[in-house]
Amino acid sequence: MTFADLVPRDAVFVDANIFVYHFAPDPALQGPCGQFLQRIENQEIQGFTSQVAQAPGRLRSVGASPANGSRWRSRKCPKIRK
User: 49 Cβ partners below 8 Å, 6+ apart?
Assistant: First the structure.
């Protein structure tokens, strides 16, 4: 199955890799992943995830930074209070 096979109102699990490839400087994967996320944002399909917290570390490991063409910007997360 590919992203193009998804039809309106489909519900899919979105792995952290989709976010990594969307922001990483890889033109072969960046476009399709971005289009897929845009379809979710436009509510054409439903996306569910549980691993988004892994994405920033994975982005650093693949060398994603604005200096080498990535759209990803690192930001510090505020502390969560109990």
Answer: 13, 14, 15, 16
Predicted confidence at residue 37, as pLDDT, reads 94
Assigned domain for 9 exists:
no
- pLDDT mean across residues, the chain: 76
Query: What does each C-alpha distance from 10 to 7, 46, 52, 69 come to in angstroms?
Result: 6, 6, 20, 32
Does any domain span residue 36? Answer: yes
Domain that holds residue 28: 15-65
In a domain, 32, yes or no: yes
The predicted model scores a pTM of: 0.64
